[in-house]
Amino acid sequence: MSSLFRTPSFRGWSATVLHKPHSDRDAVCRQLDRLGIATSTAWPELPEEARQADLVIFDADAGHDAQFPWPVEELPMPMIALMGSEAPGRVEWAIRRGAIAHLSKPIASSGVYGALVVATRTFAMRRASEDRIAKLEARLACRPQVAEAIILLMQHQGGDAESAYKLLQDMAMASRQTMEDVALDLLARSGGQNAGRREA
Amino acid sequence: MAFGEIPVGVLFSKSGSYAAIGQEGYWGARIAIDEINASGLFDFRFLRVDGDPRGAAENYAVEAERMMREAGCRHIIGTQTSSSRKEVLPVMERGRGLLWYTTPYEGFESHDRVVYTGACPNQGVVPLFRHIVPESGRRAFLLGSNYIWGWETNRIARELLAGCDGEVLGERYVAIGDENIDHLIVEIREKRPDFIFNNLIGESSYAFLRAMKQLAKEDPAFAPNRCPILSCNLTEAELPVLGAAAEGLVSTSTYFETLDTPENQDFLSRLEGLRGPDASISSMFVGPYEAVWLLARAIEACGSDAPDHVLAELCRRPHRTPLRDIRIDPQTQHAYLQPLIAVVETTGPERPRSRFRIIEKTSGPLAPDPYLVHYDPLESNAGSSGEAPVPDNGNTPRLRLVSS
Fold first, then answer.
1. How far is A82 from chain B (nearest CA, A)?
2. B262 to chain A, closest Cα gap in Å
3. Euclidean distance between CA atoms A186 and A191, whole angstroms
4. ipTM of the shown complex
5. Of B332, B389, B395, the CB nearest to A34
């Protein structure tokens, strides 16, 4: 049942809308309100507290980096851009600033719910990919230790590299750890020269 | 204040593939307009402006544009399918008019230029499942015509079933109008569900229901009392077409002809005089009929027919129609409605025509929740968010049918 699609609900979320006072901003706030989202507005700058919001919706037409209290590399939450101009420089800026969905101005009576679902889903997928990549990178960094552990096992068991690798794999499976963790354990216990050291 | 004549658009497909319900909608609006004009209650008259898009979605915007531009309509009663409603929305936006949409639909919309008086899912499919699952079981077979109504309604059904550890034994779609449904019968016979949720429409639905009646004759395990067939949009308008095939079908609506109130008795006897004793009245008729009355009451109360004033007045307090008081939720512009669940009884010696016997009524009008924001119908009073809001990333709370 974990694969079951659930109706996305945003009840209890908080959103900050970075846009000058305008009917477009009002239309966005009205739609957010209908979805049970607590909304605050900001202009010309996002306050530091905006970092705690579950969602930021920002104006791409008049927006610039200095409005944000966090650096451009950081993406603290899903963000949606409000776009009037489709000039490529503006679109590019909105993407760089973290927009993963957008709404076209003028804002009508619909669109926010769909954009929110896209943005939150994309954000969750991006987070999951980043976590996965970080884990894989950490494991990759342990290649020297895995090689060393295989040599150690070959010396102890007297087998070839292939059976030593297989043994390491079985040990990992049995103890429900990664091969890298098992290798580090082995080296630590044998007092090997790279023991306990993860090299980047 | 004297307004003279106020033009009102009546936009239903009186011809085309779903003319049966289009005609009902048209007559509902028309009779309400005539009643209001003859009542002497108001210091204005409604001037009916008709348009027939003939069941083609692309004609709706053209007709709505004509009603607003040429006839000066600021209020339009009508559209029934979601695709036709979506066509009309940009026209309403441009002209700052108000569309009165009275058909049950799949929700997930809340347009500034629309008043919604038909049920959304928390007022339709949710109460229907809450009724049927404890009674019939949790193993369902889902069917639909291949378009948004069937897809979305069945998706909610899946979610409801998952919430009570139920099971979906099959989910099948057929093209609109396709009557080739033998493969569905074969599969249902093999899977033996506890109940069938039928979101087929029109000819496909009729063909399916007739074939199921045949199957029930061959195998009593598929009789309506053992494997009921559910619908969210079957109304009195379709009972004559179905005849004996309708026996035992379970449907939900916010109006059935058999609604037992003095107001409904008066309403029906008035209509019998107008439409004859053989015409049955369905929610497809009642929706537009009540909408026109709401419009008249709101104009009377606020002294203006400007859409923004009318809308503000509607949202301010409940307004009276000949059948009941109706309250519009200011946040979503949808109506508070009382879901009813009924089972079809076909003709017999004591009954000249088929009817719905109401088997369950929710205790009072239910707040609309078109985006299912407050959905947890058994745990809390639907519509009011009692608990403290918790960010839930779309995973909780789930739709629930039974608390255990």
1. 19
2. 36
3. 8
4. 0.71
5. B332
